[in-house]
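Exercise: predict the fold of this chain.
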Amino acid sequence: MKSITFNHQNTSAIGMGTWHIGEGNQARTESEMAALRFGLDHGINVIDTAEMYGEGKSETLIGNVIKDYSRSDFQLISKFYPFHATPKLIEQSLKASLKRLQTDYLDLYLLHWRGQTPLAETVEGLENMVQAGLIKNWGVSNFDIEDLKELNALPNGKNCRINEDLYNIGSRGIEYSILPWQKEHNMSFIAYSPFGSDGSEYLKIAPVIQEMAQQKHITAYQLLLAWVIRNHDLLSIPKSSSVEHMKQNIEAVDVSFSADELELLDKTYPAPKNEKPLDTI
């Protein structure tokens, strides 16, 4: 498995997303658990989840998988609701997540999206959890450039390690200012929903994607994932509910593009030329 620098350490080129995992019947649950195990067994060392995912069901499923692995071998990320963003509620949410995950710490704990709680209070609560040893580091999700600048100006705001936003070939807005700003401030980026999520409901797959994938003897989804991680400077977290799809995600790490291929894709899915509102799912 190729590696990138993420959260100030060497990390697998892709992680494992877990939205909607743990919400099905027993057969589906067993398939999802097998997929996570396959990923961990084949070099993927990041799992991303949230208390929102199935109202804890995703975390519970992950806990049942990772209990059989050495905790130091992978990074575990979870997120809390914006209405749990006060110091008291952050602690309550975190302890509930840790119990479901059957672990005593998180590598990263993220504010899932911005709500009504002042950011200064949220930063205070997260710093408290670092001091308590319940999380190693913290970050945010679905933050736009102005949110990041506001956060960075707060006391301890510069301790934010991660921002996780939507990024795929059809949602490229972050390339204009967010990615450059985060690189400048040594803040890692997580790209969620490389496939547009839910069967590409939020991403129209143009014929050029299918044609190029056929030429490369890969699936359209492998091409979409390979495109997101093409520069080896961010972490993408595709979800997989089966071992077969997990294998395909891992194989996509080795897919490369020529300059002509990237130019062709850019014609159909242009890079942003100005600031755009942040895309979210």
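Check your answer against the key: The chain has one domain: 3-268.
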